[in-house]
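RECORD TYPE: protein structure
NAME: Imelysin-like domain-containing protein
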Amino acid sequence: MYRLLYLLPLLLLACEPEPAEVDTASFDRGKMLTFWADQIIVPAYQDFTAAARTLDASVNAYATAPEPTALATVRTDFATAYLSWQRLSPFMVGPGQQLRLREQLNVYPTDSSRLFAQSDADLTLPSNTDIQGFPALDLLLFGTGDPAQHVEQLQRLTDRILYLATEAEDAWTTTYRATYVANSGNSATASVDRTVNSFVQWYERNLRAGKVGIPAGVFGNGPLPDRAEALYSGDLSRALFLEGLDAASNFFDAELGLATYLDALGVRRDGDLLSTRIRAQFREARTQAASLDRDFATQVTTDNGGMLQLYDALQRNVILLKVDMLQALSINVDFVDADGD
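PREDICTED:
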């Protein structure tokens, strides 16, 4: 049954949004960029930096007095910061891309053997992205018998997260914001094109494939529960997914967002506004996800059909966003995904 469903995207690729030609120059892209910068991206950086600072402080307090109450605070602050990261991750343009925040903060699963064997590894090296960030903290805080035995490593990891968050936020607010808003043209290097590509790539690769498709075994021969996000904290994986999905939906449907852009251009598909169809798919995915186990590793083990259905709902919006929307807005895809979609 699901093999048939995976053929659906190939059929949908033949469909084009209506009308086939629209005047993207008639929309005020600069005003939209200002809204994105001031109302979405910079606030997301500020919230994440604040959460990272709180987490770093609680880990330092735990290192001083490794007691159960302090550990509970660390775990709560970890979850808060991890959720905050989901709201920022879609927007890796400029400083976020240059600092490789996605790679350094959330490559999972973490390499557990190297994490323990190389506790003093140079975290700036690209080869060490899988022994740092939130997945490494997840293992140390929830997957070891006594996190107090790893307090120095916890401090190194949270210091690194706070450093990266601070660097990216400072760059955005001091210099890059003005450059970002001014670059309002319609080209592959313009801010709208880069932001939308970052968003669509994140939706396809990180939200759809990373959080759902890979642990559900869509690209392999069966479920891979050990590939679920937040593997050790367990009941956090669904919450992380929903936070990311809401971030995507809110960005698309913002006051000056992609839905506004599409509607201003009158883009339709099969008689409906394209924005209406995209909104409907966001809602369908959220409804499907809400019915799943809070722990996606448990979900794929006990009832993988639910995860496959969620993947299908997400995949339908990949077509609407990556093909129909980008075509309507005259934005070329600047990334390559090789997972067969």
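COMMENT: The chain has one domain: 2-328.
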